[in-house]
Design brief:
five-stranded parallel β-sheet, 3 domains, Rossmann fold, single chain, 45% helix
C-alpha cells in the first residue's frame, strides 16, 4: 500500500452512494472488478478532466443561477471530489452561484429545493439532548463548524431553519478557497423558531412553526450547544453566522475568551473591509491614520469594522480614544453622537461629540469623510446627492457598498462611478461587472468575506488554536491588502482577483498559525516550516487509487 492509495470498506452500490468515496465513471477497470462495480457503471472509463468537460456545460445550460445552484448541490451529493475540482477550477464563475448573491435566494427557496440533509439541525425541542444530536454526526474529526439560528440571513431577515443554506455555503468556500478538508466541516442550523409569520405558514417550510425562542431559554440552548461541541469535537472552531445583532454580540462576548470561536459578520467583514481601506489608501494617497470613516449602519458589521480599524490604528501607535474618533456612524435615527440616550451598548463607544444630524447627506456634508461604508442592508441609500457630496469633499472618495445580496447594495458600481465622474474608489459586497465611464473601464472590488474567513480557519486548524483573536483578523487584513498589486490598483480594484484566492488563503493561514504558535494558543506542535505545514494540510480534489485495485 502506498501513501496515495485509499482503503475502502464499501463495495458495489454502497460505494457509489458514498459521495466522498465515489469516483463515478472514473473508476478503473481493475477497481470495478475488485470493488464489485462491474455493470453498475457505463463501460467507458473517464478521467477527471473528461468528467469535468461533460459536467461544466450542464451547469452553464441551466436557465437561472438558482437552477445552477441546485445542479451543483446535486453533484456534491454524488461526488464530492469532482464537485470541488469543478468549483476550484472555475471559482470566479461559480462562487456567485454557490454563495453571494444566489445563496440568498437558495435560503428563501430552501424548502422547495431541499433534496437531502447536508448538516445538523438542532431545534428548541432538543434542549437537554444536544449532545445526543451531535453524536449522530458520522465524522469524529470535525475541525470547522459554521452555525446560524437564521435570524438575520444576509440582508433578507429572519428565515429560520431555511438559513441552513448559509453554513453549507460558507463551508463550501472553506474547502474551495482554502483547502479545509470537506470531511472536517460541519454545517449546523439551530432552529429556535421564526418571527417571520409568512414563512411559518408556508407549506414548504420545514422548521419549527413557532415564534422565536428568546431570553434565558435561548441562552441555555446556546450554552448547551457550545459545551456539547467542546466534548464531541474538541478541536473544532465554531463560526457564528447571521445571528441577530443582540445575540451576535452577546455570543461573541460570552465565548471568545473561553473557546475557539469567532463571528464572521462582525470580525470577518471587519477584516475584509480593513484590507480594502488599506489598499484604497494607496490609491487615494491618504494613509489610514489620516482618514475619516463614515458608516451607514451600526450593527454587527459596522461596529465590527470600527473595532478592527481601531485595533489597526492602535497597533500603529494611536491611542484608543483618538482611533475611535476616526470612525463615525449613522443608524436609522441619524448620526451616532453623544447627546443621544437611545444607543445600544455596542454603539456607545463610537458616540462622539457632535450636533445631531438626521440624514446621511447632512453627515457627509458636515463630517467630510474620506470613505463611506455601507453595511445597512438598505438599498439605494447612497443616493446621487450623497455620492456627489463625497466627490466634492475629496478628489478620490472611497465608496464601499457592502450589503448583501446584490439587491440590498447601497448603490451600484455604475451609480458610484457616474455620480463621482469616475473618481470613486468603489467596492461592494456582491459582484458588479466592470463599468466604462468616459472611455475608461473601472473594475469594482468585491469585499467578499471569502478573502478572509477560509484562511483564518485554515490557520486555526493547522495550529489547533484554542482561540481566534482580533490580532489574527488584523493580520489577515494586512496580508490581504499586501497582495493587491499595482495592476489591481491601476484598474481601480482594491482586492486581488478571485482567481488568486487560494494563494491569499494560504498566506493568511500561515500568519494566523504563526500568531497562534507565538502567543501560546496552539495545541499542535510547532512545525519547522509553518508554510509547508499549511500547504500539506490543504485538500486537493484529485482521485486516488483504492487499495488492492
Amino acid at each position: 500500500m502506498t501513501t496515495t492509495e485509499l482503503p475502502v470498506a464499501k463495495r458495489g452500490a454502497a460505494l457509489l452512494n458514498d459521495a466522498e468515496l465515489n469516483k463515478g465513471t472514473a473508476f478503473t477497470q481493475a477497481e470495478r472488478d475488485a470493488l464489485g462495480l462491474r455493470g453498475l457503471l457505463p463501460p467507458r472509463v473517464m478521467t477527471q478532466d473528461e468528467q469535468l468537460a461533460r459536467i461544466l456545460p450542464g451547469v452553464r445550460s441551466r436557465p437561472t443561477p438558482l437552477d445552477q445552484y441546485s445542479y451543483l448541490v446535486s453533484l456534491n451529493d454524488r461526488n464530492v471530489t469532482l464537485f470541488y475540482r469543478l468549483v476550484m477550477d472555475h471559482l470566479e464563475e461559480l462562487m456567485p452561484v454557490l454563495y453571494t448573491p444566489t445563496v440568498g435566494q437558495a435560503c428563501e427557496e430552501f424548502g422547495r429545493i431541499f433534496r437531502r440533509s447536508r448538516g445538523l439541525f438542532i431545534s428548541a425541542e432538543d434542549r437537554g439532548r444536544v449532545r445526543e444530536v451531535l453524536a449522530h454526526w458520522p465524522s469524529d474529526d470535525v475541525r470547522m463548524i459554521v452555525v446560524t439560528d437564521g435570524e438575520r440571513i444576509l440582508g433578507l431577515g429572519d428565515l429560520g431553519a431555511n438559513g441552513m443554506g448559509i453554513p453549507i455555503g460558507k463551508l463550501t468556500l472553506y474547502t474551495a478557497c482554502a483547502g479545509v478538508p470537506p470531511h472536517q466541516c460541519l454545517p449546523i442550523a439551530i432552529d429556535v423558531g421564526t418571527d417571520n409569520a409568512e414563512l411559518r405558514e408556508s407549506d414548504a417550510y420545514m422548521g419549527l412553526r413557532q415564534p422565536r425562542l428568546r431570553g434565558a431559554e435561548y441562552d441555555a440552548l446556546l450554552t448547551e450547544f457550545v459545551e456539547a461541541v467542546q466534548e464531541r469535537f474538541p478541536l473544532a472552531c465554531i463560526q457564528f453566522e447571521d445571528f441577530g445583532n443582540h445575540n451576535a454580540f452577546a455570543l461573541l462576548e460570552t465565548w471568545r475568551d473561553k473557546v475557539c470561536t469567532f463571528n464572521d459578520d462582525i470580525q470577518g467583514t471587519a477584516a475584509v473591509t480593513l484590507a480594502g481601506l488599506l489598499s484604497a489608501s494607496r490609491l487615494v494617497g491618504v494613509p489610514l491614520r489620516d482618514m475619516r470613516l463614515l458608516f451607514l449602519g451600526a450593527g454587527e458589521a459596522g461596529i465590527g469594522i470600527g473595532d478592527l480599524v481601531v485595533e489597526a490604528l492602535v497597533e500603529d501607535g494611536m491611542s484608543v480614544e483618538e482611533a475611535r474618533r476616526h470612525c463615525w456612524f449613522v443608524d436609522s435615527k441619524g448620526l451616532v453622537e453623544s447627546s443621544r440616550n437611545d444607543l445600544a451598548s455596542h454603539k456607545r463607544r463610537f458616540a462622539h461629540d457632535h450636533a445631531p444630524t438626521r440624514s446621511l447627506l447632512e453627515a457627509v456634508e458636515t463630517l467630510k469623510p474620506h470613505a463611506l461604508i455601507g453595511v445597512s442592508g438598505t438599498p439605494g441609500t447612497f443616493t446621487t446627492p450623497v455620492l456627489e457630496a463625497m466627490a466634492r469633499n475629496h478628489p478620490r472618495p472611497v465608496v464601499m457598498a457592502l450589503s448583501n445580496p446584490t439587491s440590498k447594495a447601497e448603490c451600484t458600481a455604475r451609480e458610484a462611478y457616474t455620480a463621482t465622474d469616475g473618481h470613486a474608489v468603489f467596492a461592494s459586497g456582491s459582484p458588479f461587472a466592470p463599468v466604462t465611464h468616459k472611455r475608461r473601464t473601472h473594475v469594482p472590488g468585491q469585499g467578499n468575506n471569502a478573502y478572509i474567513f477560509p484562511g483564518v480557519g485554515l490557520g486555526v486548524l493547522v495550529a489547533q488554536s484554542t482561540r481566534v483573536t482580533e490580532e489574527m483578523f488584523a493580520a489577515a487584513a494586512r496580508v490581504l491588502a499586501d497582495m493587491v498589486t499595482a495592476d489591481d490598483l491601476a484598474m481601480g480594484r482594491i482586492y486581488p482577483a478571485l482567481s488568486r484566492i487560494r494563494e491569499v488563503s494560504r498566506a493568511i493561514a500561515v500568519e494566523v498559525a504563526r500568531i497562534a504558535f507565538d502567543r501560546g494558543l496552539a495545541r499542535a506542535p510547532r512545525p519547522v516550516d509553518i508554510a509547508a505545514a499549511v500547504s500539506d494540510t490543504m485538500y486537493e480534489p484529485v482521485y486516488r487509487p483504492y487499495v488492492g485495485a
